[in-house]
Design goal:
This protein is of the alpha/beta class. The chain has 13 helices and 14 strands. The structure holds pyridoxal-5'-phosphate.
């Protein structure tokens, strides 16, 4: 064995104010230290039932098929397209950021013919513009949108687009990776058919699970596929047989992660959804005000700024990498840099779940105050 291998690891306790992961509540860590049990043990099945029920609560849905994929948020995106696209299907996607662009790549790799509805990064896609594109493509099987675009800090309004898709032979797929647990995601009311998220942002759980909910309309589309879903691991019909009443083995349940998600969801309902959204809104506003006070300009369109992810333009002459390294190494604070063409130009400051606390805003402001003076 090499000399450097096998020593103890002591990762620092960072204040995770980037675009995710966020800090994890000690109760979630405690839950993870429970014994691992088998994938068909009645106790793990009961834990999964509780997760489904609590996820229905945060997704604000009655969808029977509501579960957690054993993989990160990207698996949610893959699942949405690999299950519902058959070769040649037309998919219309609103593209105003890095993750929406990734969605077009995932859809295209699943065999879709992708129509991009483009908007400048930092702006919403006006619902009328999106609906116009959908009217021009009545053959479209899916409309894909990102609710919280983590690359820009923009919150996309979805209700009008959902209302348009509701009465059509069209599925609305929504990425709620950043928003779920920190902002309203009204799956049933907004007419969303497939909505996925991830465990490590506003749900306050380590990365590794991707909650997803699927409408009965979407499940009918899935059952009428001409060819089987290419991915065995992400096949929702097989996953439903494991998570639903049949309990057919599909993959080995990551028991420790399920304990973590169950605890994270319990913490959310102890706080209450409305109170949690209010906390994210109030502290998101506070952070924006403080950052502006330090000379940063807000990047995202006014009126549509995400509470849990604030994107700011760096003042002239500020060295992105040097400053973020200093914050990390000397103050244990992580903030995110820009993605794509925003690299070196913007910061993405997260206030997600457990990290969304006034004391962490004070820590960041104190650190930046020290460094900048
Ligand atoms: C909006 C959005 N979608 C998808 C993803 C991918 O999720 P993950 O990194 O958990 O695979 C992210 C990750 O930050 C994201 O912010």
């Amino acid at each position: 064995m090499e000399k450097w291998m096998g020593g103890d690891m002591h990762p620092s306790y960072r204040i995770l104010m980037g675009p995710g992961p966020s800090n994890v509540h000690y109760r979630v860590y405690q839950a993870m230290s429970n014994p691992v049990i088998g994938y068909l043990d009645p106790q793990i099945l009961a834990c999964m039932d509780e997760i489904s029920e609590m996820l229905r609560g945060v997704f604000q849905t009655k969808n029977q098929v509501t579960l957690a994929l054993s993989a990160t948020g990207s698996a949610g995106m893959e699942t949405a397209y690999v299950n519902f696209v058959e070769p040649g299907d037309v998919v219309v996607i609103g593209v105003n950021g890095f993750f929406a662009d990734r969605m077009t790549q995932v859809a295209s790799r699943s065999g879709a013919k992708v129509i991009r509805v483009e908007e400048e990064w930092g702006k919403i896609i006006e619902p009328e513009k999106m609906i116009k594109a959908l009217k021009e493509h009545p053959e479209a099987k899916i409309c894909g949108m990102v609710h919280g675009e983590t690359s820009t800090g923009v919150r996309q309004p979805l209700d009008e687009i959902g209302a348009y898709c509701k009465g059509k032979d069209m599925l609305l797929v929504v990425d709620a990776v950043t928003t779920l647990g920190g902002y309203e995601v009204k799956v049933d009311e907004w007419g969303i058919d497939v909505c996925y998220s991830s465990s490590q942002k506003c749900l306050g759980v380590p990365p590794g699970l991707s909650p997803i909910t699927v409408s009965s309309k979407a499940m009918e589309v899935l059952r009428s596929r001409k060819i089987p879903v290419q991915s065995f691991y992400l096949d929702l019909i097989l996953l439903e047989k494991y998570w639903g009443t049949e309990r057919v083995y599909h993959h080995t349940a990551p028991a420790s992660m399920f304990y973590a998600l169950r605890e994270g969801l319990k913490i959310i309902f102890e706080e209450g959804l409305e109170e949690r959204f209010r906390r994210h809104r109030t502290l998101g506003d506070r952070l924006k005000m403080e950052m502006e006070g330090l000379g940063f300009k807000l990047f995202a369109q006014e009126g549509y700024r995400l509470p849990m992810l604030t994107s700011v333009i760096l003042p002239d002459g500020m060295d992105d990498v040097k400053l973020r390294s200093k914050l990390l190494n000397e103050y244990n604070i992580e903030v995110g840099g820009g993605l794509g063409f925003l690299k070196g130009k913007v910061w993405r400051v997260g206030l997600m779940g457990e990290t969304c606390k006034l004391r962490y805003i004070h820590c960041l402001m104190g650190a930046l105050g020290d460094i900048l003076t």
